[in-house]
Write a structure and sequence with these properties.
single chain; mainly alpha; two-stranded antiparallel sheet; 25 helices; 68% helix
Length: 607
């Protein structure tokens, strides 16, 4: 009997029970996912006795066993096993690792990856592999849920609402995790937990607690996970929405979807999410390796494991423009304050993270570079020009002003090269990142005003940064110049900007201005006692709010001393800054029945 004939007989034998068995597995799968998440939270979030530790770990192993059994049952019941393995190759590889790991641990009393990492002196590898494998399995399960047709009606939801909900849910889940006993040394309150979670998800960097001392390694890893998710969320979510659009998102939502990715078409979206994750991960890994070398082996970096952990945290925090550090004192720590190689690496990570992945693809993708070499008349895309040129222009303007006004102040005593790197670093971090290598509270007033301007503009569209974005500023600036010159159209880089885009840019600008008027107004009331103490003035208060609303993270030192009300004002500012004012406008704005009408013209004096 041939293999094909045998397979056909097996398929016929299993046909009648296929539907029932797979439905049972689907039901058990939901229980397994919820149970696994609960077990992991209990295992890593609470102090356990040795007996409890072993019991919970065995239960987690039981969940792993269910995943393995479920996968092979699905493989057996599939009428085309080769196609099934090809479509689920990642899940198949993961199940093989789980199977070998389980056999190695239970029959040979040794974890599979222990020997691999032994030479690297990495301990507690069981914990590492348990977390990694569980998260990977959870990702596979989520992907599987989205593949099922029964979930497609859930996607018929306004993308702006879905995006807003995702930010809120990530923040609240992160806050609850940070409140677990094992996440901090002395416990962390609800307000501080929400503030830290929102700062991480919105990749802002403002903190009310010192995460380097208040949080345990587990808590810091939770923060790092939120930074990673939050940093990729905007552009990755936009790409995901494009894919989901094929599952039932209406045409009326496509305009909102396109705003996320700055594309005029919803085509070619299938691989966008994977492409973003791969490119971002590669950039982060290169940055981590450079930081590992650059940190050296002295001081706090003497232990190779500590140095690797610091490199991973700062590499991810830097690329995602978070500005959060686990070094006491942040980048002003004595072991890195004068390390200009590290400053340069982090500054490059800022640049790529704040430029926007769509534009990074256009600038550095091999196929596009080859095409421009073959066809010299072809240039980078219009949006890339705006993002690149305005990013570089604002960077050098900010650095020049900083160098001029701080030459005899915070730059005093630094070498010429050190002063130049510091000026560029501060100018770059002010627009999107939040790391600082000088005392922000000691800066002169002209520099603080310049920084307010740079924070207000922020990073590029579709990037990890915030602010009104460089594209908004570029369009408004072009509109102003065109108006002064008496032009009827707004022109930029020899292109005419549609009137709808001009109006959208002004709408974003106005929403942002209003938000940064209302916020400081409320703070002036809630923090009256702090202002009356004389330690801070109204400029510090405005700086703190603009930093939060622009998801930058620079601080004059005022944030930890804010009242409960003041902290929630900044939480709201960070939330709106991450979601985006225009997104909220789309969400809350009333949809008109028809746009095909025009009122009689009205004239009035202007100016």
């Amino acid at each position: 009997m041939s293999l094909r004939s045998f397979r056909e007989k097996v398929n016929i034998f299993l046909y009648d029970s296929k539907s029932q068995v797979l439905n049972i597995l689907s039901g058990l799968n939901i229980i397994a996912v919820l149970g696994a998440m609960g077990l992991l939270v209990y295992y890593y979030g609470f102090p356990l006795s040795p007996e409890e530790d072993r019991l919970v770990f065995k239960m987690i192993e039981g969940v792993f066993s269910f995943y393995i059994i479920r996968f092979f049952v699905r493989l057996i019941y599939d009428f085309e096993p080769k196609r099934f393995l090809k479509e689920h190759w990642f899940e198949a590889a993961l199940m093989c690792i789980l199977l070998v790991q389980g056999i190695s641990y239970n029959f040979f009393n040794d974890a599979l990856l222990r020997g691999i990492f032994a030479r690297s002196d990495i301990k507690d590898i069981e914990d590492f592999t348990t977390i990694f494998i569980q998260l990977a399995v959870f990702m596979v399960l989520i992907v599987g849920l989205f593949r099922r047709k029964r979930f497609r009606p859930w996607m018929k939801i306004h993308p702006a609402l879905l995006f807003t909900i995702s930010i809120f849910v990530m923040t609240m889940v992160g806050a609850l995790l940070l409140m677990l006993p094992e996440m901090s040394h002395n416990g962390i309150g609800f307000t501080d937990a929400v503030f830290t979670a929102m700062s991480s998800v919105s990749v802002t960097g403002l903190t009310t607690v010192d995460i380097s001392s208040a949080l345990t390694v587990k808590g810091q890893i939770v923060v790092l996970g939120m930074i990673k998710l939050g940093g990729l969320n905007t552009i990755a979510f936009g790409a995901l929405m494009l894919v989901m659009a094929k599952f039932g998102v209406g045409i009326k939502h496509h305009e909102v979807i396109e705003d996320f990715v700055n594309k005029n078409t919803v085509a070619k979206a299938n691989s966008m999410l994977i492409k973003i994750v791969v490119w971002a991960s590669v950039i982060e890994i290169i940055g981590i390796l450079l930081l590992y070398v650059g940190f050296g082996d002295g001081g706090v970096f003497a232990d190779p494991r500590t140095r690797l952990y610091q490199a991973v945290f700062h590499g991810i925090s830097g690329f995602n423009n978070a500005g959060l550090s686990i070094l006491p004192g942040g980048m002003m720590h004595p072991d890195v304050i004068d390390n200009y190689f590290v400053h340069t690496v982090i500054m490059i990570l800022f640049f790529f993270g704040g430029l926007g992945m769509i534009y990074v693809f256009d600038l550095f993708e091999i196929s596009r570079l080859r095409e421009r070499m073959r066809k010299p008349w072809k240039t980078i895309e219009f949006g890339t020009k705006i993002s690149l040129y305005y990013t570089l222009g604002l960077l050098f303007i900010g650095a020049l002003i900083f160098y001029i006004f701080e030459y005899d102040n915070v730059l005093d005593g630094k070498s010429g090269f050190g002063g130049l790197v510091t000026a560029l670093f501060e100018s770059m971090t002010t627009r999107n990142a939040g790391f600082n290598v000088v005392d922000t509270g000691a800066l002169s007033t002209p520099v603080l005003i310049t920084f307010l301007f740079l924070m207000f503009i922020g990073a590029s569209s579709g990037s990890a940064g915030g602010g009104i974005r460089t594209s908004t500023f570029a369009i408004i600036w072009a509109s102003v110049i065109g108006t002064i010159r008496g032009k009827e159209n707004t022109e930029l880089f020899k292109r005419t900007i549609p009137n709808s885009d001009v109006l959208k840019a002004y709408a974003i600008f106005m929403f942002f201005v209003i938000g940064n008027v209302v916020g400081p107004f409320v703070l002036a009331i809630s923090e009256a006692d702090l202002l009356e103490s004389g330690r801070y003035d109204f400029m510090d208060l405005i700086f703190e709010h603009v930093s939060a609303a622009s998801t930058v993270g620079l601080s004059t030192g005022m944030t930890p001393e804010l009242s409960e009300v003041g902290k929630f004002v900044l939480i709201i500012a960070m939330f709106i800054g991450r979601v985006g004012t225009l997104t909220l406008a789309y969400l809350l704005g009333k949809q008109v029945i028809s746009k095909r009408y025009k009122y009689p013209e009205g004239h009035t004096m202007i100016g």
